[in-house]
Prior knowledge:
By secondary structure, this protein is α/β, with parallel strands linked by helices.
Amino acid sequence: MTDCVEHAVNELLPKDRQFFLTGFSFGGMVSGHLSTRMPERIRRIVFVGAGGLKATRKPTGKLHKLLAEMPPQVLAGEARRNLELLMLHDPKNVDGAAIYMQILNTTRAKTRSRDMGIAGALSKVLPQVRTPLSGIWGEFDSTTYPYIQERIDIFRAIQPDFVMSVIPGAGHWVAYEAADAFNTKLLEVLKP
Length: 192
């Protein structure tokens, strides 16, 4: 996956252009790996609910597999359930757009991101990362809550000035569930 993202960056941006990188969930793992390949180009990584930290996680219900051939009502119901278990803290925030994106993304997924997260893919590369790091997490991120301090400690062991911003009331998909607060915080973090 990192090879693909590195290729895309090199095709889309001039070779001498620096950029910021925001990596959500599995994208956080990819961002960490990418920064070891192009440390001079990435000005800052903002991890958002990043997985792969080999940290304590509260058990949650098993997600149901979504299959494109499921009847539409069953598919939508299973997508809603998975969103409530993993992605969004407040069930009222599970709307038609979130269900549609969940179905689209999970029925097309080709990676086993959970397996990579459990294996600690980001933890393995973090000690090599020299890019400045920041974090934005939802207060009730299902992959983190109630162990947010453990994540902060992991990052601060590598970069003592690491700052984790926590968005109140939001879950794992903080950029969707609390878009205004997230966007404001992200712009604040990216200011030079």
